[in-house]
């Protein structure tokens, strides 16, 4: 089998030369053996492979470690007492390799609720949790999604619309992506980074104020959004793309300065989103599957073919080369 390992940690954006493709024996031992079909390439890898010792939500990777990421695979073999059988599809976290050996409890059996196995890699549970739990949108409200062209953002606009938002505004650094977000993915308006980084620019697209913010960027865009929110606004912090896509640094810190008096005066709530709640994950999968089959939502993504393409896929993701998620078909 082949797998992708980290060669060196850098203080800037990862390059294909920071990784190597290694041939290694198919794992053998106790557990469920899975042949991976597809895995997710996500911007948070920038933090995991970067230099530094800052605490991160997932353990940092060191030179020689195999990369990780959400994956969907087919069970090849399983112990008699396992909860899956050969031929079953499972999701797990050991992507970036052709085969994975998984102990019980480190995989989830997939039940066919989604029409395409790759759709299980859609990061929509973060957007769904933000818009239903951490910063619930009410019918007719105005929603702002920063980083709207990313994997989360390209789903968040569609979800907000399905949940009854009256106006959905996004931000993007690409005019071409902005046009597609409006024509295909539920957005009423998409602002450039420059306009999104000032309160004046945001007010042009949201003259009545912003009720809900799904923030994937941080930085100047979050600070400007706080200026334009109305009374009882809700802000869900999902990502830190401003730091993750910065050409320098380790992206392990994402500091934003704002005025606490403004939050207090407006009674604004700010919540972080970690999509690890099993209940919200199951609810999202059920509703996502129904929306997909009804043609009410799409999963914007780019597929790379072959595990050898994964380092290039990560490089292009970091360069903003694609709208939506990036996945690799093994």
Descriptive notes:
There is one protein chain. The protein is of the alpha/beta class and 330 residues long. It folds into 2 domains: 2-122 and 300-329, Quinone Oxidoreductase, Chain A, domain 1, CATH 3.90.180; 124-272, 3-Layer(aba) Sandwich (Rossmann fold), CATH 3.40.50.720. 28% of the residues lie in helices and 24% in strands. It is built from 11 helices and 15 strands. The strands form 3 sheets. Strands 3, 4, 5, 6, 7, 14 and 15 form a 7-stranded mixed sheet that branches. Strand 14 (301-305), helix 11 (310-318) and strand 15 form a beta-alpha-beta unit. The chain is globular, with a radius of gyration of 20 Å. This is NADP-dependent oxidoreductase. Keywords: Oxidoreductase. Residues 12-328 form the Enoyl reductase (ER) domain. It comes from Actinomadura harenae.
Quick take:
The protein is α/β, with parallel strands linked by helices.
Throw out a few tags for this protein.
330 residues, alpha/beta, Rossmann fold, 28% helix, zinc ion binding, Quin_OxRdtase/zeta-crystal_CS, ADH-like_C, ER, oxidoreductase activity, acting on the CH-CH group of donors, NAD or NADP as acceptor
Give the helix/strand layout.
Elements: E1 2-6, E2 19-23, E3 32-41, H1 45-49, E4 71-77, E5 89-92, E6 99-102, E7 108-109, H2 124-134, E8 142-145, H3 153-162, E9 167-171, H4 175-184, E10 189-191, H5 193-196, H6 199-205, E11 210-215, H7 219-228, E12 229-237, H8 241-244, H9 260-266, E13 269-272, H10 278-294, E14 301-305, H11 310-318, E15 325-329
Parallel strand pairs: 8-9, 8-11, 9-10, 11-12, 12-13, 14-15
Antiparallel strand pairs: 1-2, 3-4, 3-6, 3-15, 4-5, 5-7
InterPro entries: ADH-like_C, ADH_N_2, ER, GroES-like_sf, MDR_fam, NAD(P)-bd_dom_sf, Quin_OxRdtase/zeta-crystal_CS
GO molecular function: oxidoreductase activity, acting on the CH-CH group of donors, NAD or NADP as acceptor; zinc ion binding
Domain Enoyl reductase (ER): 12-328
């Amino acid at each position: 089998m082949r797998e992708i390992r980290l060669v060196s940690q850098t203080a800037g954006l990862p390059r294909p030369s920071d990784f190597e493709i290694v041939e290694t024996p198919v794992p053998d031992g106790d557990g469920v053996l899975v042949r991976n079909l597809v895995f997710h390439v996500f911007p948070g890898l920038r933090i995991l492979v970067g230099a530094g010792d800052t605490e991160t939500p997932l353990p940092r990777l060191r030179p020689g470690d195999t990369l990780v990421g959400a994956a969907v695979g087919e069970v090849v073999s399983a112990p008699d007492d396992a909860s899956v059988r050969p031929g079953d599809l499972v999701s797990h976290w050991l992507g970036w390799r052709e085969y994975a050996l998984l102990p019980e409890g480190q995989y989830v059996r997939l039940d066919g609720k989604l029409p395409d196995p790759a759709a299980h890699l859609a990061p929509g549970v973060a957007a769904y949790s933000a818009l239903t739990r951490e910063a619930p949108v009410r019918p007719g409200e105005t929603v702002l999604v920063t980083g709207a062209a990313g994997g989360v953002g390209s789903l968040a606009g569609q979800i907000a619309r399905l949940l009854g938002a009256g106006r959905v505004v996004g931000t993007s650094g690409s005019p071409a992506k902005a046009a597609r977000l409006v024509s295909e993915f539920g957005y009423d308006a998409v602002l450039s980074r420059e306009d999104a980084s000032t309160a004046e620019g945001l007010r042009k697209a949201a003259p009545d104020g912003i009720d809900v913010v799904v923030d994937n960027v941080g930085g100047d865009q979050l600070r400007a959004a706080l200026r334009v929110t109305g009374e009882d606004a809700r802000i869900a912090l999902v990502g830190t793309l401003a730091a993750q896509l910065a050409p320098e640094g380790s992206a392990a810190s994402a500091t934003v300065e704002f005025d606490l008096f403004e939050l207090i005066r407006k009674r604004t709530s700010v919540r972080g989103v970690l999509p690890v709640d099993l209940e919200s994950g199951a609810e999202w999968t059920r509703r996502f599957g129904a929306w997909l089959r009804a043609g009410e939502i799409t999963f914007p993504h780019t597929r790379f073919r072959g595990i050898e393409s994964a380092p290039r896929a990560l490089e292009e993701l970091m360069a903003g080369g694609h709208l939506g998620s990036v996945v690799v078909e093994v």
